[in-house]
């Protein structure tokens, strides 16, 4: 899957382990802020019926591929089409001009192939699930040859070694439909979607500070939408990065937005991830969640994203500051209708649940 700040790869065993103690396989789990769909993909693999939601188009494509699309329906067709797309010669267009010439996120040889493949996918006018799988294959191929530290707010001062590699399409890791039934990917604002979902468990991983995922991954948004927007700045961000704002990225707005989202949920169990670098502190979150039932908190320590290890640079590529810390605390907040005692798994000495 793509490089992604906030990815739950390291925490996935704890998330799955926690949900596994709260709901049997076959239960319905809603993931309201799906991002890369890593959590939803793992839940589907574990036999849950998953409903994934995100308001960004690239995240919806990832969820459609990894959560909604079933392997048995698409795998043969996807293999044939990806083999055909992989043979296309490059042809420079919007992507090459914007992200290889005006900016330096990709080598032109790869930008030209991205342009050609994306145009071919667009011309197919394929069913939404099939189109999403093909777009994810292209997105992930591009991610393997980019020249960033994991975010698209800026590109590397010198070409990253991986950027010299040739773009290579691969078949995404599609999963078979779980016996519980078809999974679903939706695309909408979490506050609105929360009230429409019928689930046994809701998993929430909301944005926690001012850094917008649209800003951080604007190239993927443009690649999926293929709307060829006007851009601005050194990073050639989509012009709508200036106007598409979320209350979750606002210190004054996040508490009310989270309160409205949780208030709209009808499911009996909530599991929420939140980071200690967020706008809300643990006390504020606990006060909010206690209104819904019994609260258990699991504290986990993990490494910050790779960019934190590189340092702080100005737009000219000069190092201007030192990173204060390389570890974060992640909290899993669990709300149930009855008191529970949760095992925390292994690997983190401080991962002790606190019943409140």
Write a concise synopsis of the structure shown.
The chain is α/β, with parallel strands linked by helices. It contains 13 helices and 12 strands.
Write down the CATH class of the largest domain. Answer: Alpha Beta
* Approximate shape: globular
How many separate helices? 13
What is the makeup of the main sheet? Answer: 8 strands, mixed
User: What is the architecture of the largest domain at the second tier of CATH?
Assistant: 3-Layer(aba) Sandwich
What is the radius of gyration? 20 Å
Instruction: Indicate the percent of residues in helices.
Output: 25-40%
Order of H and E elements: HEHEHHHHHEHEHHEEHEHEHEEEE
Overview of this protein structure:
Helix content is 36%, strand content 15%. It is α/β, with parallel strands linked by helices. It has 2 domains: 12-70 and 180-207 and 251-356, Vaccinia Virus protein VP39 (Rossmann fold), CATH 3.40.50.150; 82-174 and 209-245, no CATH class. It has an 8-stranded mixed sheet, with helices on both faces. Helix 2 links the parallel strand 1 and strand 2. The longest helix is centred in the first third of the chain and has 17 residues, at 108-124.
Topology:
Blueprint: H1 12-22, E1 28-31, H2 38-45, E2 49-53, H3 57-68, H4 71-86, H5 94-101, H6 108-124, H7 128-143, E3 184-186, H8 190-194, E4 201-204, H9 213-216, H10 218-225, E5 231-232, E6 237-238, H11 254-264, E7 269-275, H12 282-290, E8 294-303, H13 307-310, E9 312-313, E10 319-321, E11 327-336, E12 354-355
Parallel strand pairs: 1-2, 1-4, 2-3, 4-7
Antiparallel strand pairs: 5-6, 7-11, 8-11, 8-12, 9-10
Helix pairs in contact: 3-7, 3-10, 4-7, 5-6, 6-7
